[in-house]
Specification:
By secondary structure, the protein is mainly β.
């Protein structure tokens, strides 16, 4: 499990994983971009106490709207990632 603090205005990730990514927002606000099966990008906004599940093999990027503290982990356990160049 990772606990991350990120300042507003920054981006993280731009990758995809062979397992589900799970996140929990403790404080702040983050937008998550996810690539949809039709090639478009869906953007969702999450704030304090939100639980997020990003399905395996879905490219994603985190855009921090406010200074944010969140936890992230992967199920099943074990971390692997591949960059998704359009989001990097």
């Amino acid at each position: 499990m990772n606990i991350l603090y990120t300042r507003a205005g920054y981006l993280r990730s731009g990758d995809l994983h062979p397992n589900d990514q799970l996140d929990f927002v403790f404080s702040g606000k983050v937008r998550i971009w996810t690539l949809q099966s039709d090639g478009t990008t869906k953007i969702t906004t999450h704030g304090p106490h939100d639980f997020i599940r990003i399905p395996r093999a879905v490219p994603h990027v985190f855009e921090f709207v406010e200074d944010t503290v969140l936890a992230e982990w992967w199920e099943p356990q074990g971390f692997q990632a591949w960059f998704y160049r359009p989001y990097r």
